[in-house]
Amino acid sequence: MIDDRIVSFGLWCPSRTVFIDTMAAKTNPVTNTALATVDENGVLIPSRYVRAVELGEVVSVPASYDEETDTITPATMIEGHHVNMHAVGPLAGLMTANKPETGDIFERTNILSLLGEMNWQASAVGEPAGYVGSSGIKIFDLATITTPANVLAN
Description:
Layout: E1 6-13, H1 16-25, E2 27-28, E3 33-34, E4 36-38, E5 44-46, E6 50-61, E7 64-65, E8 71-73, E9 76-88, H2 89-96, H3 111-115, E10 119-121, E11 130-132, E12 138-140
Antiparallel strand pairs: 1-9, 1-12, 2-3, 4-5, 6-9, 7-8, 10-11, 11-12
């Protein structure tokens, strides 16, 4: 039987460097390896049962164009490094053990207990409200995003 459980959540990071350093320092509780590392070319290598889609800066307000496709108003970007994270299979099972199937990411998973002390923070630079740890990385529920990118389906 294939374990097709998925838990998806978003991260806002001050920079890609902070994201990579934090992922390398956090341990995947299923494999006892770093959540992610990078190779010699800077390519992200998530550990087993972890998927990460690095989005970088994201558009807050799209650009506007005239009939000749010349830019009238440039796009407004939300600064920082945005990442869609997905725990799959046994890691998703560990995160949802003894939790309800409904509610936001913080109610239906035990993700906060896996990440250590985090504090609630409202939106500061256009990113959604969520929990922030000492690294400055904010975790948030992807369901709060009006048009999420790269959504995984079961």
